[in-house]
Amino acid sequence: MNQVTDTMLNHVTHRIFDKNFEIDDRTIQTIIDCLKKAPTHINGQFYSVIVVRDLEKRKRLVELNPLNGHILKSSVFLLFIADFNRSRIIIESNDIHHDFGKNIDNLFVAGIDAGLAAMNAVNAIESLELGCVIVGGVRYHAKETIQLFNLPKFTYPLFGLSIGKPLDNPTKSPRLPKVLNVFEENYNTIPSDFFNDYDQLLIDSRVTQGSIWSESIFNYFEKDTLKTVTKENLEAQGLLS
Asked: CA 132, CA 185: separation in Å to the nearest integer?
């Protein structure tokens, strides 16, 4: 083991931060430098990051995401954006119009690029003895987030990252057993009742919040909350035809 693997293996999600703690500019720049070194498809870097320190903007984000009060109490919030606006500029400089919404693979490309960058950021943050939490809830109010940050067409808010000095001491969440999601050569058959043991493991570890794990997965897909909202907002941003 080394410092890098120790940091990754000891990852926990923090949601309670010291609201009076300020992260200096040098540390923020280090985090940004690290996330920008993440792998990226064809070196396209199809994402952007907005560093949000303004309290009014963060208050608005909490109004939109009331279960994520840490956005306001953290030291800084990073908003990760799928970004094809730079690509549009390059294409139009060649007097060509391109319909980004016709190729759904674009959404994979931008999502993967942004996700890899975010994980670089998480590892950097935790190595600096700070804490963070990924905020996927920004997509539930994408239209309002687009307006709040003046996002141009061909961009889309994917998720955020609250960063600060943690005051909580959360339990490490056990992941699925290797036999269920790490396979050799071929995808293995998964028993239909696999979730019973994992549900109990999370209960025993005291990391569940509200419903048990399998119920939360069922409810997420049964409600399908983002289906219509995301489609409409992607179309408005020129990323889905």
From this structure: 35
